[in-house]
């Protein structure tokens, strides 16, 4: 049973991944539609980042995580190297949790 | 670039370790835990599947996981030929496609730089996730809580940092902000995966409007937009 769950999930997920990649070749898209594809990807990534920053299991994730993400975004805005963006975000969240912020 | 990938890779290693530890603690055998990271390779779906399988609902685990991963199809469409010229590149590369890999790749200018970014990020993050899972399986409860290290803030911050430059483009900025707002607002109401897909509504509206424009123009010829552009298309 377990192996069936893993294989079904793996096959379906690979199907989504490879379908998008291979479809791109088959579809003869006009220039404006090709330009829209990265816009769609950016919208998805922004939605993912926002829901991951703010929510946990369908509810508010608490203040520590969004505060850390906000610090990371401000650092990125100031063009601080990416490594420090990641460390700054995680460090802020860790510090706030250490201080008892949920 | 390598240093940037390694930074996010280190966070993925730690989260992978917590996945390994959580899966073993939930009663999953070692082989199943390692296989899941290697052949499914999708963090969110893996945590969800472990929880639902442990709760005795394997069918829900499959359906919920696939709903969560449907976003990879539009990611694949956007990446397209960044994976390489040959079919085998695309078949193998497709397995390495994740949110983070997509963000790293699209942050580069189109062409060779994008292909190099895809394979560098794709390979290293895959290795980090699987090495992390192995560590978690071996160390079990000794793996610290990733929440205490604030690692849940690392990936969203990294994704937004990679997106920032592209937000200078007006269409992208509007799509990203409206998509994020829509997804967050829908999260308490819809099953996981769907809220994020709602973010495609903005770009889809733009697409539908553009698609209907040429046919409208031939009939109505709205004043401001009739330049050289539509006449060339409309006549043939």
Which features characterize this protein?
heterodimer; A: 102 residues; mainly alpha; 2 domains; two-stranded antiparallel ribbon; 4 helices; 2 strands; flat; B: 236 residues; 13 helices; 72% helix; globular; disordered C terminus
Tally of helical segments of chain A:
4
Portion in helices of chain B: over 70%
Oligomer: heterodimer
Distance between the termini of chain B: 47 Å
Question: How do the SSEs of chain B run, as a string of H and E?
Answer: HHHHHHHHHHHHH
Low-pLDDT segments of chain A: none
Q: What is the arithmetic mean of pLDDT of chain B? A: 88
Overall shape of chain B: globular
Strand content of chain B: under 5%
How would you sum up this structure, described in words?
The complex is a heterodimer of chains A (102) and B (236). With 102 residues, chain A is mainly α. Chain A is 78% helix and 4% strand. Chain A contains 4 helices and 2 strands; from the N terminus they run ααββαα. Chain A has helices spanning 2-26, 31-54, 64-77, 82-98; strands at 55-56, 59-60. Chain A has a two-stranded antiparallel ribbon with strand order 1-2. In chain A, helix 3 runs antiparallel to helix 4 (82-98). The mean pLDDT of chain A is 95. Chain B is mainly alpha-helical and 236 residues long. Chain B is built from 13 helices and no strands. The model of chain B is unreliable at 215-236 (pLDDT under 50). Classes of the chains: A mainly alpha (102), B mainly alpha (236). At the A-B interface, helix 1, helix 2, helix 3 and helix 4 of A face helix 1, helix 2, helix 3, helix 4 and helix 5 of B. Chain A: Pfam families: AzlD. Chain A: InterPro entries: Brnchd-chn_aa_trnsp_AzlD. Chain A: The chain crosses the membrane at residues 39-61, 82-100. Chain A: This is Branched-chain amino acid transporter. Chain A: It comes from Micromonospora acroterricola.
């Amino acid at each position: 049973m377990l192996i069936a769950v893993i294989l079904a999930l793996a096959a379906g997920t690979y199907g989504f991944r490879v379908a998008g990649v291979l479809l791109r070749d088959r579809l003869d898209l006009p220039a404006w539609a090709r330009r829209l594809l990265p816009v769609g990807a950016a919208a998805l990534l922004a939605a993912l980042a926002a829901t991951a920053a703010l929510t946990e299991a369908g509810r508010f994730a608490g203040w520590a995580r969004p505060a850390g993400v906000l610090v990371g975004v401000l650092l990125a805005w100031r063009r601080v190297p990416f490594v420090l963006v990641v460390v700054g975000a995680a460090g802020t969240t860790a510090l706030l949790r250490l201080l008892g912020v949920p | 670039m390598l240093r940037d990938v390694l930074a996010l890779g280190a966070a993925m290693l730690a989260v992978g370790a917590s996945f390994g530890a959580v899966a073993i603690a939930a009663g999953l055998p070692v082989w199943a835990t390692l296989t899941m990271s290697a052949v499914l390779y999708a963090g969110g779906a893996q945590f969800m599947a472990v929880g639902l399988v442990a709760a005795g609902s394997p069918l829900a685990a499959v359906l919920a996981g696939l709903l969560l991963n449907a976003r990879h199809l539009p990611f694949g469409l956007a990446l397209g030929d960044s994976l390489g010229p040959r079919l085998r590149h695309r078949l193998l590369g497709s397995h390495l496609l994740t949110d983070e890999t997509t963000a790293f790749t699209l942050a580069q200018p189109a062409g060779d730089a994008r292909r190099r970014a895809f394979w560098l990020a794709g390979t290293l993050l895959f290795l980090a996730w699987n090495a992390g899972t192995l560590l978690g399986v071996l160390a079990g409860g000794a793996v610290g809580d990733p929440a205490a290290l604030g690692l849940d803030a690392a990936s969203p911050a990294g994704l937004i940092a990679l997106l920032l430059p592209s937000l200078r483009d007006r269409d992208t900025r509007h799509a990203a902000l409206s998509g994020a707002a829509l997804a967050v607002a829908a999260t308490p109401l819809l099953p996981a995966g769907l809220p994020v897909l709602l973010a495609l509504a903005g770009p889809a509206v733009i697409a539908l409007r553009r698609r209907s424009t040429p046919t409208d123009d031939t009939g109505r010829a709205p004043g401001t937009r009739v330049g050289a552009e539509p006449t060339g298309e409309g006549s043939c």
